[in-house]
Amino acid sequence: MHRLLHAREAGVFAALVLLFLLGTVLSPTFAQSGNLLSVGQQIAQLGIMAVGATFVILNGEIDLSVGSTYALSAISTGMLISDGWSWAAAMAVGLA
Q: What positions belong to coiled-coil segments (predicted)?
């Protein structure tokens, strides 16, 4: 237990708890289940991108195009859906 309290991860966890409490105090709707689910879904997408970028960086390469590729894919998919394309076709184009 003593070792756990001095670990670097304990500081990160404490900062996360502090941010959560601050968000709850500043916005009463922050801690509602719908909002937490939405935040979790958005973080999942970024987490998947971060894992891929981590492998690239660990191999000694630097790839800064991940964020712009993600944005281009999301925008093009959204525009195609707005133009009346089916979800499946728009997703196929966005992923291509």
A: none
